[in-house]
Amino acid sequence: MTHQRHRKPSTTHPRPPRGLATLAVLVLLALLWGGDTSWAGWLTAPVRQTVPMTPPPTWTPVAPATPVPPRPRPTQPPPEATPVPQAQPWLWLNVEPHIAAPGMTVTARLEVRNIGGSTMHDAIATLESANIPTWLRIDSYEISAGSIAMGAERLEWHLGAMGAGAEAVCVFTGSIALDAPPGGELELLAKFGASASGAIQDRALISLPWALLPEAGGQ
Questions:
Q1: Is the pTM of this model over 0.90?
Q2: What contacts 101, CB < 8 A, 6 or more positions away?
Q3: In the sheet where 89-96 sits, what is the strand order?
């Protein structure tokens, strides 16, 4: 009786034919020798390289943008000049009563002030009327400052220098002339100022009634 030997199955992969491997090597050598570097580069390049190292023929370099200079800062406006304080006259004239018959007594009050911020030099106030002393005779006066000079149809009140905020008062009394015509008006014009600040004006009227009042002997 004869014994037959059983071969174990092979666990290795079958080898490719020797002729096919040789052909592949020859093709690769031919490509390299023929100068086709694109195929050689593709075969030998690392796996992570996906773009060519040199730029394409149509690529042109972009010139860097010209830097824009910063905008200049706005200049500060010059400081405004501090206004120089000026003198400013203020005037008020009042007469009582507003209606007076011949022979009646009237009282006039004249107030002046410097409401500006500097001294008013050579301040002067005047009281004028075309009817002084024809229809109105000034009998007496009182002043808080300065001096009085009487003239024809004009009363001058000299105050000199008045500081900022200074004020003065003049009160005078007068009488209506007995021959003053009824129905007329006696106008008083007051002025106040100085050479540097100008003069301001105020007016007051005294009306003469048509009928005589009891104080003048009327019925």
A1: no
A2: 176, 182, 208, 209, 212, 213, 215, 216, 218
A3: 89-96, 105-114, 167-176, 136-143
